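Here's my example:
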Amino acid sequence: MSKIKNMSESIWGEIKTNHPIYTSWLISSFVLCRFKNTNSPIIKSQERVTELVFSHLNEKYNMKYSDANPYKTIQINPKNVTYYTAPSIEVDQDRSKRDLEIGVFTPHHSLGKVVGGEWDKPVNKFSDTLIYKSFINHFRNETAWENTEWFNHYADKIAEGISIKNCSTISQFEKRCSHIDKLYKDIEQNGYRSQKEIKDGTLFGEVVVNIGRDGKLLFNDGRHRLTIAKILELPEIPVQVLVRHPDWQSVRNKINSSNEVENMCLSTSVDLSHPDLTDIL
């Protein structure tokens, strides 16, 4: 109940700062995200509504809302995500207290938004995170989970009475580690599948990235799957974009309004093969 209450309060807070159309869309999205079948007419309708909403908002406020459908996925090489998003004013404070290192934008604050600031400065390496180093030790060096820093960090939190990922006992956390082992083995043997394939469809549930001012992909959420994809050296995985920096959004805006896309991109040193541009080129 507390999660629902916190989410409701966060969404309600959006009414004071966002366009009413965005707020209405945001609320309906988080209601419909509970549906598991994206082939249902109501979900298909929501996807079309989303396209219209963001097209309208971007036309009116193109430096606050992106033109891109926030539900769309783009295909990226995991090795190209080398940094994670720095903490910002929109960080979910409760979450950042539970998690060790990564301050993230949250969907119920920032889905589909254009956000300025210094959050995209590449200073926080993903490979330096505790989870990445511990997963490397476990899967490559065959270190037992209980001997990794990641496990012991959260074991200490649980001992302090803090619930971690719905785990309030060490036994429950060990089961979660076993689930991660199964996930790793499944991806290794059967390849990487999208959340739509695994869960019979979800609107927003892939690894989440943000896009910085120069087009750099910065990790935001889904660290287990991204880390496993990196360890297995997968060439490509689907991700969804949560937030774009205004400088990058201006590139999309220019392409959308340009009749000479190639000349515009060459003059601004934009890589036409960037995965976030495939939907508008």
Observations:
- DSSP finds twelve helices and six strands in the chain.
